[in-house]
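Journal club side-thread
Mid-discussion, someone asked how the predicted structure for our own chain would compare to the paper's figures. Pasting it here so we can look after the session.
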Amino acid sequence: MKNILFAPGLVLAAMPLAAAPAIAQETPPAASETARELAAMRAEMARMAARIETLEAELAAADDAPAAVPADDVTAAVPADDATAAADPANAHAEGASGGAPAGRGGTTIRWKGAPVIEGEGGWSFKPRGRLQIDAGTIAAPAATGVEDGFGSEIRRARLGVEGDIPGGFGYKFELDFAGGEVEIADAIATYGDGGLTVSAGQHNTFQGLEELTSSRFISTMERAAFTDAFGFERRVGLSAQYAADGWLVQAGVFGDNADDLSNRNWSVDGRLVAMPELGGAQLHLGGSLHYAEYESGTTLRYRQRPFVHFTDTRFIDTGRFAADSELGMGLEAAAIAGPFHAAAEGFWQKVDRPGALADPTFFGGYAEVGLFLTRGDTRGYKRGVFDRVKPASPVGEGGFGAIQVNLRYDRLDLSEAAIVGGTQDGYALSLVWTPTDHTRLMANYGRMEYRGAAIPAAGGERSYGVDAFGVRAQIDF
């Protein structure tokens, strides 16, 4: 192409030179006029030659540039680290971002947030998610109880799922749990968000307190407080709404039962109110929750709990089954985070309405906890009314050792009331948590449970004794 454009230029430039001898034979007046025309022609030819050279240079640059790719074929408009920083500057360090390049125009971007987050035009996004928790440990009960104690292990949770956004403010989250050799639906949610408002439909958490709503990835002990399992807190199919703004969070919903237990006529109403002020650099948390459930005729309830670890099926505290028409739960919660220190406490009262003239018991559960990071610059995460991910200031792989945290907890559960004798538990727990990176965690827990009125008697009918439990956990999530 360069030679084709260049040849006409040479021919045109040479034409005036070839015509010069003939023109020189004309009469003086005509020769003068012709000379002016020739001068104009030469100037025009010079401009054309310069233009041709410019076009040749532009054509050469175009030949060297990469071919354009249609928007639908783009797999990454910007480097993953740069896209992460641009999308969420606050999380740039946590997710390994190193720059702030803008996202590509009109195409698909891929950024990293524990797993690839694929974002398309118009608000589409897709992200795989999952967690793996592997537990092992021992329990030691008095030999006189006849309990088979000793070593135990399990895959506590093995979840895989997806989440993302749909144009128009909609979103989705779907996650399955494969632990225990069975497949169960953990979350199956469709959402709509507008500013601080989020509406959710499907199987998701009800609103029964700080400990229950904090993800198992971020709790400070291997298992949550005893009352959360004993009172049957779990995900249920329902419709809910929550609104967060200016340090306040309001949550409420109407629910049926867990997806694995449907279909039935059970239903519940749950609500929670949280204040989240910051005071002098400290994050404070004050909240309360309310739960009311009605059960279909003939329903029986059973409140019980394991001894601090999950890999044993032995329950030393157990009401046995009893008939129930409804239940009313009321909870209070408080927490504070100040640099490396945190504290949290909850109390929950569960009143059961029994049929006929049977007495209505009110059971109680609660805990109090303090924790401290031993590594400089680390603190407990907090977001929208729950504890969140710990992000080490000096993670492993970046020249650091990760975050080390120690926690002390007192855990109370009372299941004896109104002719129902399920026993009481006073638990004392110590946990050590090492977080090498944002998405990895190792835990070691020791718990001492003191029982009175235990469901399993020792020799001679003795029901007051202690049980020791020790557990370790390896965890990854994405």
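Post-session note: Residues 124-477 form a domain with the Porin fold (CATH 2.40.160.10).
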